[in-house]
Fold this sequence. Notes:
Elements: H1 2-21, E1 27-31, E2 38-42, E3 47-52, E4 55-56, H2 64-72, H3 76-99
Amino acid sequence: METESKVFNINASQTDKQNSNSNKELVKTKEVKGTPFTIISLTDTKEHFAALGQYRVTEKHKTRKAAEEEVKEISWNRIVQVRMILNEKMKDKSINEINK
């Protein structure tokens, strides 16, 4: 048991050194022209999804283009998603105004 702990500690310190030595960008963003959406690309997992503000609106995709194509499709599901996000934002804004 103690041996496993030591191995874990060594690996953790090695990982910390690797992370501190690299200035690797973890997330890239790209606005989808003509929409309120942004494509978020995770560089470490190579996954891409569309977001509206802090809310993810698509599943994760293997390519940026696939995420962009999905979010550009206007469907009832997308309309409901956006409406729910707007309702949440309006509720947050109302709560913030009451707390002032």
